[in-house]
Predict the 3D structure of the following.
Amino acid sequence: MQEVDDEPLFAERAAGIDIAKAEVMVTIRVPSDSGSGRRQQETRSFRAVRKDLLTLADWLRCWQVSRVGMEATGDYWKPVYFLLEREGFDCHLYHAAKVKALPGRPKTDKLDSVWLAKITERGTVPPSFVPPEEIRRLRTHTRYRRHLTQVCAAEKQRVEKLLEDAHLKLSSVISDIHGVSGRDMMAAIIAGERDPKVLAQKARARMRRKIGQLEEALDCSFFTEQHAFVLHMMLANIDHLTAQISQLTVRIAALCEPYLRQIEQISAIPGHGIITAQDVIGEIGTDMTVFPTGAHLASWAKWVPQVTASGGKRKGSNATGRGNPYLSAAVGEAVVNAGRTATFPGAKYHRLCKRMPKRKAQRAIGNSLFRTYHDLLSDPAAEYADLGAGYYEQKMNTHRQIRNHVRAIERLGAKVTVQTPDPATGELTTLAS
């Protein structure tokens, strides 16, 4: 039997915190005073209020604890994590699914804190990504803006359903009933106007070409006072939400001033805009040293299929898993928008759709976008350069022609070496046949 040295601990003095809504259970583990290589530990409970959490920080300092680990429990971990982070501790947040205790071990808050302390000192579980405080402030605003945008979109859908209930087929003629013409017509209906010809004259610009269709769609025979009352409340709610979204956008622009360069880099990608770039920065930050490569960033965002194989056979549906819903929403919108453009991502999307479902193709484009984010944010001087919609076709045709000519000559018994000049330097590069 060969004796081997045990692996060193990642943290000699560590603490594990089991977090609940009203209190936290904390266990510290430090080297034993006997010096025999053993460990000693102590567990205490603290209320989850600022006064007691400051007392917790002082207690950890007394024992010279350097690293603190805790489990992500709802939103209850945030006050504890943020306060200890501000007090100078190295805080690690663990995903709940990765710190489950061994089967058969009793489950109590005290034992959970001991388990978390052991995980922290041994470094057996990688910590989750928590952005710095400045990015967290931006994230709070961008996430709330997305919530308000979703609520506003839902309210607009309710307006359309109400009009259908009143037999007003306005959305069949106007693509956006909340534009200038549509809002003027609905305002007149709420004010008591019921004549379709008068209502149709509210149309502006190109909408005036559809005066006849609007007169038919604006027949108010089934429109009641109850419909008018509810419609008035819905439109007022939409106006209120729109004003709040505008205020948030102004506030977000002020918070994004330190990241104008990064936002400019991301917004240059096809399918992106200023709002999408702000949302992306608010979720992943600007420090890409947290993610070693772009593939790590895509994997963290759950835009990479999880392949499970056993005995050479794939198991399950190869789903990507549940990632950050706010980041996925922003990137998903960017992928859909990019697919409608005559650019390299758009051409790639249409090329993939020929041999796979659209949803799978969108995942592939999103995966590429995450790698692009990583490359751009890792180098402030980097600029996005689109390869063009015809890149694949041009590259395929050139290589195909060279390959066909080489094979034709080799069939005659000759050996061919193909060298192509580099457009930038003019140096010859050997091309594989």
User: Anything to note?
Assistant: Residues 135-255 form a domain with the Helix Hairpins fold (CATH 1.10.287).
